[in-house]
Design a protein that fits this description.
By secondary structure, the protein is mainly beta. About 5% of the residues lie in helices and about 60% in strands. It is built from six helices and 35 strands. The strands form six sheets. It has a 22-stranded antiparallel β-barrel. A five-stranded mixed β-sheet has the order 1-6-7-4-5. It has a two-stranded antiparallel sheet with strand order 2-3. The chain is globular and about 65 Å long.
Length: about 675
């Protein structure tokens, strides 16, 4: 079954778009607002983390290139307060858990528009390559940008992925970059990126890459009686990605972008290593396509409008030869469609006071070949009124989010409609005359809706589920200074989080029929600390160090629960990391260390569920080799898990040992 836009929906979209398109014909003679960002570009990340009322961590530009990372998920390991759920190998599914709240509480935004998954509420960050990524940012609470969409307010935490856009030197009309990466596990990863300047106001970019790997690697296994060396099988992947975008900027400073994204993959699902079982035959196919666009028009110095829209289709196919049905092997297919439109009005009432009104409409539809499937449809209406008061030494932001959810199904019974209001308060203050020290804090109350799986999955879903609520309080500081040609940036935050009506699965009449209930409650107390230093020694030696530490006590406080007062699964009390980046002439040397403390794989904190701490050391060296033409040939060698530690992020899913990658890149 397919769902199409009805005439009423088309009329509604037109009513929102037409006024903006008509007004965009007027010429704006004001000074470009984007000028300030250009002036701050050199030190943008450090400046933002210092003045933002919400804690923010970012990696961009050269830093992303230096990390031993293939995907966005790999890069996020270097942020504090994050637990990455990695099921192993190049093709392993990777999801992120921020501050122990669960991956469904974290919104992931791709060039300002959310990546959705109404089926299970999670985004596999292993799908998104760093090859076309300009910046990766994590915002605790929410982004402070006043022109963000209403969806940006609707998550407890947000991850922003900003892709590369064309930037040309005078006289340039095109830029072509080709690269290839190869190494352990049979990895073959070629990529091509092309920027083309159509005219002074219009440019285009195409980025494509292939990832192919057999995924086999050795690991140590012990069943308590004997130890052996085994090989991880059915961990192969073959995927390709294509991104094409067009970027426009008119003389009146109106800007617009259109992007098409395609991802297609086939991978093996190696499964858990239990009961001396080392081979699994399950397979997964994914196909993701979306077309998204945004348009900004500045009516006057005070008033601007930004429109965003998206249409996306996600298809997945799961094959399990171990389960035989009346029609053959178990084969499930899932098909999701998403329609999305956002309109944001921004009005500068005073030089220090900005107001924002954002409205988002979204529709999610899902089909599947499951027995007794409901074929659900979810319509979402979001409205946000936000205020920003910014003075020289004080910033305060407030927002109130109105959420309306309207459910319908083709068969059986739909969940009830839902309406909720969610407030947020953020502040950043400079307490002394010196701008080196700033204090910040926020309070945010939010929720996450049950996913389609939670509500409608056959024999498991429960249409009477309530949303899972979260409440956060955060207080921290940022200190920046320059001492002896070294720039220091230190941030630290303490926080407390309450999760209520947590959605958990409870066995039903037998072990094959589980049901979802609102039973869990979790309280988290945490501290996050980040320290960055960067400087120069002489004219050609540059260095940067990044040190992170996180303490988290996330306790199950469900009344009457068997694990009351115990640490929730897979959350370490202590974790951290160290990164060191050195540049000398044409040579770049990078080292990183990541540590995750002891955890438990189940609710009960007992010896059988105990997971030992793990850590990895990674190194890379890059050299810019003089080559024909004005651009050098860039060579890179990476060594991951340098000391070949045997570990598992998820119990019974062993991670690879020592591995190597060789990179070659050239820009025309």
């Amino acid at each position: 079954m397919r769902t199409y836009l009805s005439p009423i929906k088309i009329l509604f979209l037109g009513m929102l778009l037409c006024p903006t398109l008509l007004w965009s014909q007027k010429r704006d003679t004001l000074v470009p607002i984007e000028l300030q960002e250009i002036l701050l570009n050199h030190d943008k990340n450090r400046f933002e983390s210092h003045t933002s009322p919400a804690p923010v961590q970012s990696l961009s530009g050269a830093q992303l290139k230096k990390l031993n990372s293939l995907s966005v998920a790999d890069a996020l390991r270097y942020f504090s307060g994050i637990q990455l759920k990695d099921y192993g190998g190049i093709g392993g599914i990777k999801t992120v858990n921020v501050r122990s709240m669960g991956s469904q509480h974290t919104g992931v935004f791709f060039d300002g528009i959310q990546l959705g998954n109404a089926q299970n509420g999670q985004v596999d960050l292993g799908k998104f390559s760093l090859d076309n990524m300009e910046k990766v940012s994590l915002y605790q609470g929410q982004h402070s940008e006043m022109q963000q969409s209403a969806k940006s307010y609707a998550s407890a935490n947000t991850i922003y992925l900003q892709t590369k856009t064309p930037k040309f030197e005078p006289g340039e009309t095109y830029q072509l970059a080709v690269g290839v990466r190869s190494g352990s596990f049979g990895l073959f990863n070629p990529s091509i990126n092309l920027n083309y300047k159509i005219n002074n106001a219009l440019s285009a970019r195409v980025s494509t890459e292939l990832v192919s790997a057999h995924g086999r690697y050795k690991f140590q296994y012990s069943n308590g009686v004997y130890d052996t060396t085994a090989v991880r099988n059915n961990a192969d992947i073959r995927s390709y990605r294509v991104e094409a975008s067009v970027h426009g900027q008119h003389k009146n400073q109106d800007t617009w972008n259109v992007k098409y994204y395609h991802y297609n993959s086939e991978r093996g699902l190696p499964g858990a290593i239990v009961a001396n079982r080392f081979a699994r035959p399950q397979r997964l196919w994914d196909r993701n396509d979306f077309l998204q666009a945004d348009y900004k028009h500045q009516f006057s110095e005070r008033y601007s409008v930004k429109v965003r829209g998206k249409y996306g289709v996600d298809y997945s196919r799961y094959l399990d030869p171990e389960i035989v049905t009346t029609s053959g092997f178990l084969e499930n297919t899932y098909d999701q469609q998403e329609y999305y439109l956002s309109l944001v009005h921004t009005y500068k009432a005073k030089s220090y006071w900005t107001l924002s009104l954002a409205t988002d409409v979204q529709q999610n539809v899902m089909q599947a070949n499951l027995y007794r499937f409901a074929y659900p449809k979810r319509n979402t209406l979001l409205n946000v009124l936000a205020s920003d008061l910014t003075f020289d030494r004080f910033t305060i932001q407030t927002s109130i989010l109105s959420t309306g959810i309207y459910e319908s199904v083709k068969y059986y019974e739909a969940a009830d409609d839902f309406q909720e209001f969610s407030p947020t308060l953020l502040f950043n203050v400079q307490p002394f005359a010196s701008p080196d020290l700033r204090l910040r804090g926020f309070y945010k109350k939010m929720f996450r809706m049950p996913s389609f799986n939670d509500l409608y999955y056959t024999f498991v879903g429960n249409t009477f589920l309530n949303p899972e609520y979260s409440e956060q309080v955060n207080l921290g500081f940022s200190w920046q200074n320059e001492i002896w040609n070294t720039v220091f940036n230190v941030t630290s935050d303490i926080y407390k989080i309450w999760i209520t009506d947590k959605i958990v699965a409870i066995p039903g009449t037998n072990l094959f029929r589980w049901t979802m209930y609102n039973l869990g409650e979790v309280e988290t107390n945490g501290i996050e600390t980040n320290m960055t230093t960067s400087g120069k020694i002489g004219p050609e030696f540059n260095y940067t160090t990044i040190l992170t530490y996180t303490f988290q006590e996330s306790l199950d406080v469900t009344p009457g629960g068997n694990s009351f007062g115990q640490q929730i699964p897979y959350v370490p009390k202590h974790s951290g990391g160290l990164s060191l980046m050195l540049d000398y002439k044409a040579i770049s040397l990078n080292y990183s260390f990541i540590y995750t403390g002891e955890r438990y794989s189940q609710k009960a904190n007992i010896a059988s569920n105990y997971l030992q701490p793990w850590y990895t050391h990674d190194m890379s060296i890059n050299y810019a080799l003089p080559f024909s033409g004005k651009n050098p040939l860039k060579l890179g060698l990476e060594v991951n898990n340098l000391f070949d530690q045997q570990y598992a992020v998820i119990k019974n899913f062993p991670m690879p040992g020592r591995s190597f990658r060789l990179n070659l890149n050239y820009e025309f």
